[in-house]
C-alpha cells in the first residue's frame, strides 16, 4: 500500500489506542480553529469523553495543544467503490474492510459502499455481504450504481449487463440489502424509471439521477416523483445546453436536490464546480470520491466490475475506450483542493464533506458536526490543510504527532 501522504512525518496510524475514549481518558483538543455549524471559532477546543463529544471537560482530561491547526468533523462519503487495492463490488469482507480503513486514514469516518453494474443474482448476493458490514457499523449503507442506467451514458459500466429500472428488480435489491440500501442511481427516463423512483422514496431509499440521457422535462418529472440526488453532477449526463438544458439545469435549480461533485481536478473544470456552488448553494453540495480500488494504493491495472482499468498518474480510465473509470480521490485531497485551489470558504468545504452528506443520510443527529453529544468523529488539519490526525468514535485512526 502506498504511504499515507498526509501522515508522513507528522502523524502515524494508530495500531493501539493511545489516548482514546474507550480507554476512559477524556481528551481536550485545545487552541485549534474549530469549524462549527455557526462558523469557525478560533483558539477553541473540542472535548472528547468516551465515544462522544462533550460540552464540559472532566477534571482528569488530558490536553492536546492544537494551536495553528483546524479541527473539522469527520468526512462522510456517500459514493465510494473501494480503495487500498480493494473493491467493494467484488472483494472479500476482509478486502472491503481494508478499503474502508484506507479511506479512514484520509479522514473518511463514515462511508457508503457503492457497487457497479452486475447481473441481478450477483448484486443481490453482494448486497447480503455488504449488509453484514453495515450491521457491524463498518459502513453506513449500500449504494447501487447500476444496472439501471442508460447505455448512452454508461461510463465505466458493462453495457451487456445494463437493464431498465423495473420496480420488481429494484425491490429485489432493496430486500437483499436488509434495510441497508441507502441509494440507487437510475436513468429515470428509462421504462420503469419513474415508478422505481416512487418505490425507492416509499422505502426510504435515496433515488439518485445519474448515468442518464434525460431531458430537462424528464428530470423534473423524476424530481417530482421523489428523486433527491444528482449522481456526480455533470459527469455521465448530457451537457448544459441553451436550447436543451437537459438534466443539469433541472438538478441545479431544484432545492430538493443534493448534487454530488468529484473535486479531483479531473472530473470537473473549476468553473463547473463554481457554477454548482453558485446555483445550488453550499448547503446542497456533497463532495464524493467515486473512488475505485487504486485510491490510496497506486497506479497500475485494476478491474472495475468486469471491466479492466488502467490507472496512470492517478487517473483511472477503461483500457477499452478510455472512459474515466471512477477516481483515485480521497476526501482529504478534495478538502484541500476546495480551499486552496477553488478558494471556497473552509465552512463551505466542511458542509460539502461532512454536514450535507450526514443530513442526506439522516444521521446528522450523530455525525456531520462537532456539537456536544455527537460521535467523536473528527479530522485535524494543519494551516496548509494537510491531514495530521483522524479520530473515529473517540479513537485515533491517525494519531497526531505534534511539537
Automatic annotation (TrEMBL):
<dbReference type="InterPro" id="IPR003764">
    <property type="entry name" value="GlcNAc_6-P_deAcase"/>
</dbReference>
<feature type="compositionally biased region" description="Low complexity">
    <location>
        <begin position="1"/>
        <end position="18"/>
    </location>
</feature>
<dbReference type="GO" id="GO:0008448">
    <property type="term" value="F:N-acetylglucosamine-6-phosphate deacetylase activity"/>
</dbReference>
<dbReference type="Pfam" id="PF01979">
    <property type="entry name" value="Amidohydro_1"/>
</dbReference>
<protein>
    <submittedName>
        <fullName>N-acetylglucosamine-6-phosphate deacetylase</fullName>
        <ecNumber>3.5.1.25</ecNumber>
    </submittedName>
</protein>
<dbReference type="InterPro" id="IPR006680">
    <property type="entry name" value="Amidohydro-rel"/>
</dbReference>
<feature type="region of interest" description="Disordered">
    <location>
        <begin position="1"/>
        <end position="23"/>
    </location>
</feature>
<comment type="similarity">
    <text>Belongs to the metallo-dependent hydrolases superfamily. NagA family.</text>
</comment>
<keyword id="KW-0378">Hydrolase</keyword>
<feature type="domain" description="Amidohydrolase-related">
    <location>
        <begin position="70"/>
        <end position="397"/>
    </location>
</feature>
<keyword id="KW-0119">Carbohydrate metabolism</keyword>
<keyword id="KW-0479">Metal-binding</keyword>
<dbReference type="InterPro" id="IPR032466">
    <property type="entry name" value="Metal_Hydrolase"/>
</dbReference>
<dbReference type="InterPro" id="IPR011059">
    <property type="entry name" value="Metal-dep_hydrolase_composite"/>
</dbReference>
Amino acid at each position: 500500500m502506498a504511504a499515507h501522504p498526509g501522515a508522513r512525518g507528522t502523524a502515524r496510524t494508530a495500531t493501539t489506542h493511545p489516548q482514546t475514549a474507550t480507554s476512559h481518558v477524556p481528551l481536550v483538543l485545545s487552541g485549534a480553529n474549530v469549524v462549527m455549524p455557526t462558523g469557525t471559532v478560533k483558539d477553541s477546543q473540542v472535548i472528547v469523553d468516551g465515544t462522544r463529544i462533550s460540552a464540559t471537560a472532566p477534571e482528569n482530561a488530558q490536553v492536546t495543544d492544537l494551536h495553528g491547526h483546524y479541527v473539522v468533523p469527520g468526512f462522510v462519503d456517500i459514493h465510494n467503490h473501494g480503495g487500498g487495492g480493494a473493491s467493494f463490488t467484488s472483494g472479500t469482507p476482509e478486502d472491503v474492510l481494508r478499503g474502508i480503513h484506507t479511506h479512514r486514514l484520509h479522514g473518511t469516518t463514515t462511508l457508503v459502499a457503492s457497487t457497479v453494474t452486475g447481473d441481478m443474482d450477483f448484486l443481490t448476493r453482494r448486497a447480503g455481504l455488504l449488509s453484514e458490514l453495515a450491521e457491524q457499523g463498518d459502513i453506513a449503507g449500500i449504494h447501487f450504481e447500476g444496472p439501471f442506467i442508460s447505455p448512452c451514458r454508461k461510463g465505466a459500466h458493462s453495457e451487456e449487463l445494463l437493464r431498465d429500472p423495473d420496480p420488481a428488480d429494484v425491490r429485489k435489491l432493496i430486500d437483499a440489502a436488509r434495510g441497508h440500501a441507502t441509494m440507487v442511481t437510475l436513468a429515470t427516463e428509462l421504462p420503469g424509471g419513474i415508478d422505481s423512483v416512487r418505490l425507492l422514496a416509499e422505502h426510504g431509499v435515496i433515488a439518485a439521477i445519474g448515468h442518464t440521457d434525460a431531458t430537462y422535462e424528464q428530470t423534473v418529472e423524476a424530481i417530482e416523483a421523489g428523486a433527491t440526488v444528482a449522481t456526480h453532477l455533470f459527469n455521465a449526463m448530457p451537457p448544459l445546453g441553451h436550447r436543451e438544458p437537459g438534466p443539469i439545469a433541472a438538478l441545479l435549480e431544484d432545492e430538493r436536490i443534493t448534487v454530488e461533485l468529484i473535486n479531483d481536478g479531473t472530473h470537473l473544470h473549476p468553473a463547473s464546480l463554481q457554477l454548482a456552488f453558485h446555483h445550488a448553494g453550499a448547503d446542497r453540495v456533497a463532495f464524493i470520491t467515486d473512488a475505485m480500488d487504486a485510491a490510496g494504493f497506486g497506479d497500475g491495472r485494476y478491474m472495475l466490475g468486469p471491466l479492466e482499468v488502467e490507472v496512470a498518474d492517478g487517473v483511472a480510465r477503461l483500457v477499452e475506450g478510455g472512459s474515466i473509470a471512477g477516481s483515485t480521490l480521497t476526501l482529504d485531497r478534495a478538502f484541500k483542493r476546495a480551499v486552496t485551489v477553488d478558494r471556497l470558504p473552509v465552512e463551505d468545504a466542511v458542509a460539502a464533506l461532512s454536514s450535507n452528506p450526514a443530513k442526506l443520510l439522516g444521521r446528522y443527529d450523530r455525525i456531520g458536526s462537532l456539537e456536544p453529544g455527537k460521535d467523536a468523529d473528527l479530522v485535524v488539519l494543519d494551516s496548509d490543510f494537510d491531514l495530521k490526525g483522524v479520530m473515529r468514535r473517540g479513537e485515533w485512526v491517525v494519531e497526531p504527532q505534534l511539537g
